[in-house]
Amino acid sequence: MAPYESEDSQGAGQSAARRKVVRYAVPVAVVGVAAAAIGLVPALADSGDPDLPKVTARELIEKIAASDTEQLSGTVKIHTDLGLPALSGAASAFGGVGGGGKGSSSADPKEKLTELASGTHTLRVAADGEDRQKLSMLDDASEYSVIHNGDDLWAYDSASDSAYHATADRHGSAAQRERGSRTPVTPKELTDQILDAAGDHTSITVDGTAQVAGRDAYRLQIKPRQSGSTVGAVTVSVDARTGTPLKFTLTPAGGGAAVVDAGFTAVDFGRPAASTFDFKPAKGTEVTEADDLPARDRPGKGHEEFKDAQGLDGLKVVGAGWTSVAELKLPKEAAGLASGSGGGDLPGAAQKFLSSLGDQVKGDFGTGTVYSTRLVNVLITQDGTAYAGAVTKDALIKAADAG
Fold first, then answer.
1. Does residue 267 surpass a pLDDT of 70?
2. Closest Cα to residue 236, out of 255, 254, 251, 249?
3. Which residue blocks in 240-392 are alpha helix, DSSP H?
4. Which residues pair with 58 in a beta bridge?
5. 187-237: per-residue pLDDT in tens?
6. Do residues 321 and 199 make contact, with C-beta atoms less than 8 angstroms apart?
């Protein structure tokens, strides 16, 4: 594949019209990792505190919203530590269930998403407006890339020499079609999601300055005003010149290392070379066409289609702001998870494995099991109702009692 090149390292080709920052990462619903975890490196850390003119939090948010960055390329390090238990034996415990469906490809982005849930990964990103983006996840010996170029969206896994291809249809571009289940990865996408949900439940301040990827930046700090959230603070380093978020760090209320730490270690705001977004599978590459897959195996399914496919119903939100809790009814066979008796036809090893992960709890709702990470907690009640949110165990029980 073509390297990430720059035609103008000084930023030529920037749009003259002021408009909101494009979401320069490839739609992350189609992004996965073909890379093993690498060691956390000091490059993620800020270096130096530049002397910059004072700005208010409102001015800094307006700077992010007004940024006209449409071309860039660079390297991002992302580290995720949800505190998930080791799942090395989970596949065998579940009897090998959960693999790709019939006709699925090892390059299918849906098969790669779970690898972003832990460890440290190196990403190369490039963007040239709304129609051309590329994101690659790098390993020592392989690379997994997603390339959006006009009406074509390709995913390629060098380890298996397989590719996945989607094209535009009457519903819009390939990128838009894949957007339904996207997961934010870049500092910009992560920041947008937090600011969109901020509301009156949030304290937003400017917490000094930093230098990220060799560029001067302001630090925007976002904290919940509500008690009961597992989120301690979100810190966003914003490029002082362009208004582009360069680094995103989410720390838990319980202290310790960041849950999510994603930041540029190198960035260039010039227009990437057109060849960056070219992709043509080599002879012998196994290519899977998205339209040839069964409907339920295609990424980007809408919420209603997802519910129909998974047997979920009654999805609603309890509470507001940082302590919002999603409530939904699980399929009948999942009800046994709460008591540790397993669900449906799960083998005994799987039942034992699931039971070992949770804590038994009681409340006005009855009995259930709480499955915890450092950020998100999930309560499954005896009747198969699930409550999930970035809230404490007590907040989940309170939401279940209210429900």
1. yes
2. 249
3. 303-310, 348-357
4. none
5. 777 777 777 777 788 999 999 999 999 999 999 999 999 899 999 999 999
6. yes
As a whole number of angstroms, the distance between CA 118 and CA 81 comes to 5
C-alpha span between 166 and 7 (Å, rounded): 28
Average of per-residue pLDDT values in the chain:
75
Joined together, the tokens standing for residue 270 give 């010039």
DSSP-assigned letters across all residues of 327-381: EEEPPGGGGGGTTTS--TT--HHHHHHHHHHEEEEEETTEEEEEEE-SS-EEEEE
- H/E stretch holding 312: none
How many C-beta atoms lie closer than 10 Å to residue 119's C-beta? 17
Indicate the pTM of the whole model.
Answer: 0.73
Q: What is the pLDDT of residues 105-114, one digit of tens each?
A: 677 776 665 6
Whether the CB-CB separation of 159 and 97 falls below 8 Å is answered with: no
Parallel/antiparallel/unpaired status of strands 286-289 and 162-167: parallel
**DSSP per position, 232-286:** EEEEEEEETTT--EEEEEEEETT-SS-SEEEEEEEEE-SPBPGGGG---PPTT-E
So what's the pLDDT on residue 89? 43
Which residues have CB under 8 Å from 380's CB, separation 6+? 330, 334, 337, 338, 358, 368, 369, 371, 386
Find out if CATH 2.40.360 is the number for domain 28-49+69-185+208-216+250-292.
no
